[in-house]
Every structure is written in C-alpha cells, then in structure tokens.
Structure to design on (706 residues):
C-alpha cells in the first residue's frame, strides 16, 4: 500500500496547440479577431485595482443581471462560471447522476467524454448522418441526459428552434443541455424556451470567449429554470464559491451592455465567413454551411493533413483532427479579412503547386 | 422517472456574509487591509486589454516560474488554479481515491467535509486538544490521506517544521496536504520539504487572497513533487484547461516579484496583530497565539455571540461560528491600525456597558 495507489489514473485532455511564435496567422482556436468592446476596455481602465484586496461578490449578481436582461430572463435563471468549460463540468456533476447513459453525437466537442470519464457518467454517442447533421430521432431513445452543441463543433452546422423544440419534446424526462458557445454567429438561442413551464429541464450554456472577444478572462454562463440553476449553484458552492473574479464581472457587464459593438463585430465575422466559404468552394473545397465563427472543409483531391502542415510552415495555424470520419477535414477560424486573405492565398498556393 | 431524479442532492456550502453596506469596518473575511503591490497594479495598467480576445496560455508558465523562484523549486513543482479552493478541490479528486478515510481536525477549514461529500471521499476527524492544538500522534492511524491547514483556521495556531516533518514521517503511505492559506503571517512554508526525495507525497497549497492582497483575482497554487503535480495537471485538464486568466497571470507575476512590498505589508499586519492581541488580553480576553492575519478569542464573562451582534450594529463586522467547542469565540481579521482601533474601542464599550 503506497500513496501512489490512491492517485487518480486519468488520461489528460490535451488542449489545442498554442504557439508562442509571433507573426503567425492564428486561425486554430476559434478566437475572435476583433478586440473586446471599447466599453469593456474602459471598464478595465476605470477599475479600482486597490479593491482587488477584497473577495468578489460570491453571487456576482450585477453580471447575472446584464446577461438576464440580454436574454429576457430573470437573474435567478442565470449561472456564472470560470469559462463555459467550468459551467459544463459543474452541470455534468449536477444533472447527470442516473444510471442511464447520457446522449450526444459521435462528432462533437471533445470535452464531453472527458467529463463523463472524470465523473463516472455513462454515455452513448449517436453518429451524425452522412451530411454531418444530428438526427433528432436518435434522441428519442431513453437516456440519462442530452448534450448538444448548437452550432455543433467542429462541424459548424447550426440547427433551428424547431429542431431544438423537437429534442426537448422527445426528452421530457432528461436534462437537456444546449451548448451555445458559437450560437451568436448564426442560430437563435434556445434561451427563449427557458421561460416556458414545459421546459424546466433545459439548460443553455454560453461563453464570453467567442462572440464577446474575452477568451483571456474566462467567463461562461448558463441559462435555465430556477430548478436547474439552484442545483448548479449548490454544486458550485460545494466546489468553489468565488469563481468569477472582480475584473471579469466589471468587463463582462460592459461587454453585454454594448450591443452595438457586439452586433457590428459578429456581422463582420459572418461576412468574412461567407466570403471565405465562397472562395474555398471556387477552389473545389466542400465547405459545410457554417453558423459559427469557423468553417469545416474538405477537398477530394488533397490531403487536409498535408494542407494543415503546409500552412503551418507558412505560419498560418489552423486545426486538423486525426479522428474517424473527419480525418480529411480542416477547421479554420474566421479571422480578419486580412488574415483570411493570407489563409486563402497560401491554400491556393498549396493546391496549385 | 423524471429529470429531477438525476439532479444532485447536496446541501450547499454557505459562503461567509458579504455585506453590501458602505462605511463598515470589515474584519470578517480575512482580507488584507492593504492594497495589492503597486507593481501588480502597474502590471494591470500596462496590460494590453485588446489581447483578452486570445485564450490565456493553458500552462501559465511565467506565473509558475515566479512562484517557483520564490519557493526555490522547479516550474514542474508548481500548479495553478482559480483560487486555492479550486486547487484543493482538484487535489481531493486527484489524490484521495482510496477506501480509507482521510484525516483532518474536528475544527478546521469548513470546506474539507464539503468536498468529501461532493466527491464521495470517506473522512475521519480528530479532535484538537484542549488548547486547540493538533495532536500529531492522531495522524499515525492508518488513513487515506491527511489535510492540515498551517496555521489552522479558525484557531490561528501555527505549527513549526518539526511538527510538519513528524506528520510526514507518520504518513509515508498517504498524500499529505498542508494548506498554507495563512502561512505567510507566521509559519515557515513546508515547501522546503518538496525538494526532498523522502516526501514525494507532500502537497503544499497557497493563495494570493491573503498575504498578496488579491482575493478579487482568484489565484491559488500548489507546490509538490513532479509525481503529484502531474496527476493534478491531468485532473485539471480533464475539468477545465484554462482556469487562470490573463490578467491574473500578469498581476500575479508582479506581485511575487515585489518582495519588499510583500514583506512590509505582512510585517505591518503582524505588528497590528500583536498590539490587538495584547490589548484584548488586557481586557480579559483569552486570545490564542496567532500565526495568521486574524485572531481567535473568547472571554469568560461575556457572550461572544452577543459581542458579534453588538459590533454589527456598530458597523464592525467580525466572524462568529455557532459550532461545537467554539461557540463562545470570535474570529477577527487583522485590519489597518485604524480599523483595529475602532474594533477595540467598540469591544471595550460593549464590555464596559
């Protein structure tokens, strides 16, 4: 018997590559190419740094209120965490305590199986169809919970509210989590169902890391019925009471209040995405219809793994997944027009070699 | 069968009261009365807020290096989290996976049993002796792990390195966590044992919230053998890869580099603590010898609960625990000299009524 016997044996999740090189075109982490709202930056400048000696308010109510106002829900319908990974990890612990497997797609956010293994949650994956779409009928099967990202990642495909409502109607007896990390770039938020008495089992998660340009701050949130939010709060307060720091609260509020900047940057990213998609299709790529701030593409005549490696030598960083079904696809973040032009130019150079 | 059946049933931990009133003397949360290092504040001013659009580096190596240099260990001996509660919660999950109960005192940090319940870890508490000291012989009993705060809270009592070494020598087969949230105010860090091959099972945890005046930022850390740190990293990377935000990294580095300011503020707090202790003793209080930034005191002739409530009406907030053995004690944070003078004046007014 040694202390080593009680150590957790776990295969670590390997975060995406973060190059320390300068002067790269960084289209590999789905970061926003535009800075945070000037009002958020001003909130940081105006922040009284001496007050950091004090704990943040454990409930962070003013930030909850800014989010609640935006989504048209109450403060008690909002939960905050240290990035949406924190929110999702707490939600898995809070809601998936049954014996039946939880359900999610075979191709989706790679952290779901990692949390299931960490918390000992049984799970079952349902294959996306041949067009990489989620088949809602799969989620009629009895399950211990459902997790679906909308838009899905890395496929970029978004679904409409009829689809979400179908999932909810099929799953009256399970908690349904809709992970909306990328929703602002192309789908309507399922938060509209949170007000309804019929869907007390719905949790919608969101993040400041993508559409709000605040990945460096680590803020995520969830919107759900009071019944779900109160259980999430109880689990969070059994883990770490003060997860959202004072600077994040101040900048987060300003970010949500600046709707004009938010709309303008999201619209710019969507316009660049459409231009990028059209040009790649001209070059013979198959590009899935994206509702996100990234595109997912393949080409019948070329190895996407080689393209990924070629682009890296040209200092253009994109993402390649060596995984079943998608091992000839690339995922490319929508950057600024300038960044995307460099990506397109180098991609064209590769296929014209 | 309803979705409600799979919700986690858990008694939430209730964080300490955080009054929203202004103009109070706030001596109830063991916050530092002095602002963060001017160099940390400068680091915040110099921070390029536009870069917050990018994720922080998942490994936060520059901050690990600043901490490693201070404690004389390697970067691979340092782990970072979102406050020391996050670090401890991850450590409980990483190291306490056996069937034997983990061991800690009956009077100690109130989060330990909360984590045990959350993660299903068996535990056994050992009563402090009649002087509120930890009896090291208790920790010879076979166990699944040991957690001891040094100084202990809320007793404020610190133990020397001989005591820690004894605990380590008695527990070759368990992971031993020494929780040093308050260590900078009066005990030598057990980090000095981390270098030793004999104590690969030692984890020391620390925080920026007390001696570093950065409670608002949420940074905690751990120091341990590479064997322990690598398991902690694996569990953390299975939970949330990006826990420490970019602003915390920048301010945290500056804070650790400014040793003069750190020493000066810690020394001021210790001097105030000794003056406060002496005066309370003159007033007939029993005050435990504190190695922390708070004192723990009682008086044979007065109800400490009533004193606590009286002080609140005078806008002086301290802490009272309605718990077995300590229900006639108060815990008072060491504030500025001015704050402590108000506390002493009002306390004297109470007992002279």
């Amino acid at each position: 018997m040694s202390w080593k016997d009680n150590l957790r044996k776990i295969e670590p999740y390997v975060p995406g590559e973060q190059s320390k090189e300068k002067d790269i075109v960084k289209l590999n982490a789905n970061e926003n190419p535009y800075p945070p709202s000037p009002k958020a930056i001003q909130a940081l400048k105006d922040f009284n740094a001496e007050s950091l000696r004090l704990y943040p308010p454990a409930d962070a109510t003013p930030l909850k209120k800014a989010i609640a106002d935006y989504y048209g829900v109450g403060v008690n319908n909002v939960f905050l965490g240290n990035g949406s990974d924190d929110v999702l990890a707490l939600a898995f612990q809070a809601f998936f305590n049954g014996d039946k497997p939880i359900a999610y797609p075979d191709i989706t956010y790679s952290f779901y199986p990692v949390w299931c293994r960490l918390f000992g949650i049984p799970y079952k994956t349902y294959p996306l169809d041949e067009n990489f779409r989620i088949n809602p009928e799969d989620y009629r099967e009895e399950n211990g919970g459902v997790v679906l990202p909308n838009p899905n990642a890395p496929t970029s495909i978004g679904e409409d509210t009829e689809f979400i409502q179908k999932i909810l109607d099929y799953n009256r007896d399970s908690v349904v989590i809709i992970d909306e990390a990328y929703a602002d770039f192309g789908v309507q938020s399922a938060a509209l169902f949170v007000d309804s008495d019929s869907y007390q089992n719905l949790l919608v998660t969101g993040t400041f890391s993508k559409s709000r340009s605040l990945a460096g701050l680590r803020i995520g949130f969830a919107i759900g019925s009071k019944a779900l939010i109160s259980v999430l709060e109880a689990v969070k307060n059994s883990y770490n009471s003060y997860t959202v720091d004072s600077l994040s609260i101040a900048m987060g509020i300003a970010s949500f209040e600046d709707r004009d900047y938010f709309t303008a940057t999201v619209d710019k990213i969507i316009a660049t995405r459409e231009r990028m998609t059209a040009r790649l299709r001209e070059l013979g790529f198959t590009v899935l219809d994206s509702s996100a701030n990234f595109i997912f593409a393949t080409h019948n005549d070329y190895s996407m793994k080689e393209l990924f490696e070629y682009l890296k030598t040209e200092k253009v960083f994109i993402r390649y997944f060596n995984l079943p079904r998608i091992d000839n696809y690339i995922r490319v973040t929508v950057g600024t027009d300038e960044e995307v032009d460099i990506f397109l130019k180098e991609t064209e150079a590769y296929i014209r070699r």
